[in-house]
Amino acid sequence: MQRVGVMDWHRSDDFAPLMLVMSGHEKHRLVTSLREIAEALIVTWPTYDGEEYIAAVKTCLDAIQDKIPAQVARAALIRAAAEAGISVIDVAH
């Protein structure tokens, strides 16, 4: 049962997938949902500082709480990736 005010963050509806091209253990990371944005930012991100990184984490949390659309969190992830030197590839679905 879904709680009021919290969206299903595993859902990928209306979320244009993207591929993060990272260095390290996981070279390519497919992101298709808010859950995967959160995992990328918290688990595999190369650096945990930077204004865009902090904004992306906060934006992802707001989207998980259904305060803003998932697409806003996706855009924040793209800005954080640019800040960290991570290439982003749009994936057709």
UniProtKB/TrEMBL annotation:
InterPro entries linked: DUF982
Pfam families membership: DUF982
Gene3D superfamilies hit by this protein: 6.10.250.730
UniProt name for this protein: DUF982 domain-containing protein
